[in-house]
Amino acid sequence: MKSLAELAAIREKMQSKVQIREGATTTRVVVGMATCGIAAGARPVLNAFVEGVAKSNVGDKVTVTQTGCIGICQYEPVVEIYEEGKEKVTYVKLTAEKAAEIVEKHLVGGAVVEEYTIGAYKAL
Predict the structure, then answer these.
(1) Which of 15, 37, 70, 83 is the most buried (most CB within 10 A)?
(2) Would you call 7 helix, strand, or coil by DSSP?
(3) 29 — phi, psi (to 5°)?
């Protein structure tokens, strides 16, 4: 960093990511980040949600946060989506690619991606 302008640019870039992680919105994406989740690959999933929400310009409606153990370790990485006025959706066995698809179809398009939900895995 060589100037105050560079520092300001870095601050502005990171501020949008902080807003996505801490804002007060109508939709919350909660990624299980306990030891079991991290070992199963939750960190790239969390990053994919943060980046996808930022790129899709839904950051004013969607907050991405993390939590500890959700309690269903055999299904990690686990993500729960809470939307105001709707039932919670639990996505399981996620990858960064699946997370990007969920951002596009569920968070932007409004359609639950049924094949990635816990109900789809329990039916197998």
Answers:
(1) 37
(2) helix
(3) -105, 120
